[in-house]
Specification:
binds adenosine monophosphate, binds fe (iii) ion, binds zinc ion
Length: about 300
């Protein structure tokens, strides 16, 4: 793999390659995302809904309509030795059966888990499974998660915002919480590689989401497996964690990426608040599956 110069300051121009839409737990459409990317003067934008590529055709269409380059991706739910890990997978072949099977299993597991969490919550709060499903915007194409439960709690007047629900009954430390059964991060790296894609660990230094972070040794073991990069420029990674991740990236020749983790009105994160530079996006594109092959597979 080509060793790239590791940028040690966050890019001020480039691509936002970590964004969620109504195809998972974002509140806005791919059309709105494309429009915001234009307004923010981005060089390009990436869609990374959880455990699905269902939003890819819509984002390609929306970006094409406004002349905004798009990067196709997915944020994959995973686990490494009991640590919840999110992996960003870019430009893999969506017709690959191993990847599709992995996503299908996770989406089914997410649905069962959301339903069981809702049943636990229903003992103490005015919430039903139908009320949660009413918050799902793309029917069966949407990957369901805690944010949809949060929205139902907000609609019932239990909390003023999604974030308040996440600080309360939906926190991972709460008695109502149930984890999502997930593939291991190593399985994700292998499957994405098999499908011709590029894998990046999302927000690996975010202490707000994980009591225990991945250790250097755990990240390096994933690098041994063929991991491509680390998302350093993300609001959840504090300065110490950014330095740690940059050190690992330079030691192991990993790509350094950034993204907003935009979820529309569901989270304060703004499109373009963190970026990946053009050279790194070019490297992701040269390692991943070609747009023509992906568009052929989506037809
Ligand atoms: P889950 O994957 O079902 O466990 O739910 C966690 C997801 O909720 C993560 O992808 C978060 O980014 C997302 N999320 C959306 N809005 C919020 C919020 N306001 N606070 C915390 N997490 C949020
Ligand atoms: Fe999310
Ligand atoms: Fe994430
Ligand atoms: Zn995300």
């Amino acid at each position: 793999m080509t060793p790239l110069r590791i940028p040690d300051v966050a890019p001020t121009a480039g691509w936002d390659i970590h964004c969620h839409t109504v195809f998972s737990d974002g509140t806005e459409t791919p059309e709105t995302l494309a429009g915001l990317a234009v307004r923010e003067g981005l060089h390009g934008v990436g869609i990374t809904d959880h455990d699905t590529w269902a939003g890819w055709p819509a984002v390609l269409h929306a970006c094409h309509a406004v002349g905004m380059p798009a990067l196709l991706g997915t944020e994959v739910t995973a686990d490494d030795g009991g640590v919840s890990v999110h992996m960003l997978a870019y430009l893999y072949d969506p017709s690959d059966p191993a990847v599709s099977g992995m996503f299908r299993r996770t989406r089914e597991a997410r649905l069962g888990r959301a339903r069981r969490m809702t049943e636990r919550l229903a003992k103490d709060f005015p919430i039903t499974w139908d009320a949660v499903l009413a918050e799902v915007r793309q029917g069966e194409s949407t990957t369901v998660g805690r944010p949809h439960i949060a929205d139902a709690l907000v609609a019932a007047g239990v909390y003023p915002t999604r974030s308040d629900a996440f600080s309360g009954a939906l926190a991972s430390s709460s008695p109502y919480y149930i984890p999502t059964p997930s593939p291991t991060a190593h399985e994700v790296v292998d499957a994405v590689k098999e499908a011709g894609g590029v894998s990046v660990i999302a927000h690996a230094g975010d202490r707000g989401r994980n009591r225990h972070l991945l250790s250097d040794a755990q990240i390096e073991a994933l690098a041994d497996d063929g991991l491509d990069g680390l998302e350093v420029w993300h609001r959840g990674n504090d300065p110490d964690q950014r330095r740690r991740l940059l050190d690992i990236a330079s030691r192991r020749g990993l790509l350094v990426t950034g993204g907003s983790d935009w979820h529309g009105s569901g989270k304060p994160n703004r499109v373009g608040e963190n970026l990946t530079n053009d050279v790194t996006v070019g490297e992701i594109m040269s390692r991943g599956v070609s747009p023509d092959r992906i568009e052929g597979a989506l037809e």
